[in-house]
Write a structure and sequence with these properties.
36% strand
Length: 97
């Protein structure tokens, strides 16, 4: 593993050009401002990758644990917290899921 100004890569598979290194650094800076969420395998729950707020569309994933290899629509795998009213004869309150 070679370190080129904090960018780790294996030189056996190619060399990092200054242009690509600059794009990686810019991407890191942009990601610091976004909130990320985990994309988990729908079968086993293993963390597949980190998804950021601007990411939409369909991604082809492969789970390293259960070997599921399928396209996933990110819209179907969002985690939206909804507040619902729980009505009970003894108490009424809001529950966050």
């Amino acid at each position: 593993m070679i370190q080129n100004q904090e960018i780790l890569y294996d030189s056996r598979y190619g060399h990092l050009t200054p242009e690509v290194a600059e794009k990686i650094r810019k991407s890191r800076e942009e990601i610091k401002q976004l909130k990320g969420r985990e994309l988990k395998c729908p079968v086993c729950g293993f963390r597949i990758e980190e998804i950021y707020g601007i990411t939409t569309g369909i991604v082809q994933v492969k789970c390293r644990k259960c070997k599921l290899e399928e396209p996933l629509n990110l819209a179907y795998f969002r985690r939206i917290k909804k507040k619902i009213t729980l009505i009970n004869p003894f108490h009424i309150r809001f529950v966050s899921r």
